[in-house]
Amino acid sequence: EHARKYYKNIIYNEEENLRSDQYCFFKISSKHNENFKAWILYLHDKNETKMDFINELVDPFYVHRKEFIESMDKKNIGMITSGSENYFLSIINEEEITKNSEQLKLKHRVYSVRQRHTLSWLRELQYIIFHSTGILIEDKINFEFVAGNMFAARKQVITLAFSCVHDNFFEQGYRPDGTVAHGLERFYFYVNHCLNYNLKRLGVNDEQK
Asked: Residue 151: which of 23, 46, 58 has the closest Cα?
């Protein structure tokens, strides 16, 4: 009701709470894809203790709003994110996970397992998109992405990404790493490459190829 006071066109959608913002995004996209415009700005809530996280990822869309709007008009850009260096990461591949885990204490090895699960989901999604479309970007199998799931993306990017996902991929309950949601967080950026789009990080001069 609060949103309806300020916006004319509101689609309200309620989904089962699996404690995954990605699950709700997936379900809404499945039901309302035809209502999506050319660009989708995807934001989600976070625990109040994570306000610094939200500020770094969301504020640039307001601070650099002119750049944001201009970027959406560029035909070579498929995703737009915060330019924060804190969340600009590279995929940790199989060898790196193994090397990083060598010195882990027994109680911490669960983190290594979760990293492997996330990477396994990413690899599965990359296989699915290759199997269904024939697209394989060999030099981008391991790529850079912006963590946090706060971004603007072309409808084509989201539609293609979710065409590789099934309801059954999502599991009940929150996990800090190792789920299909964490694979998806990375996969959007791979799909962006598959569609031959660049990534624009707001406040950063160069576009990421």
From this structure: 58
Q: Which of 7, 22, 16 is nearest to 121 (CA)?
A: 22
The distance from CA 125 to its chain's CA centroid, rounded to whole angstroms, is 13
Spatial CB neighbours of 7, under 8 Å, sequence gap ≥ 6: none
- Tell how strand 88-90 and strand 144-146 pair up: antiparallel
The string of pLDDT tens digits covering residues 121-156 is 999 999 999 999 999 999 999 999 999 989 999 999
DSSP state of 208: B
Tell me the one-letter amino acid at 33: N
Beta-strand runs (E) in the chain:
39-42, 77-82, 88-90, 144-146, 151-154, 198-202
Digit-coded pLDDT (tens) for 13-48: 777 777 788 898 999 888 888 878 899 999 887 777
- Could you count the other beta carbons within 10 Å of the beta carbon of residue 71? 20
CA nearest neighbour of 151 among 188, 191, 204? 188
* 82-95 as b/e: b if 16+ CB within 10 A: bbbeebbeebeeee
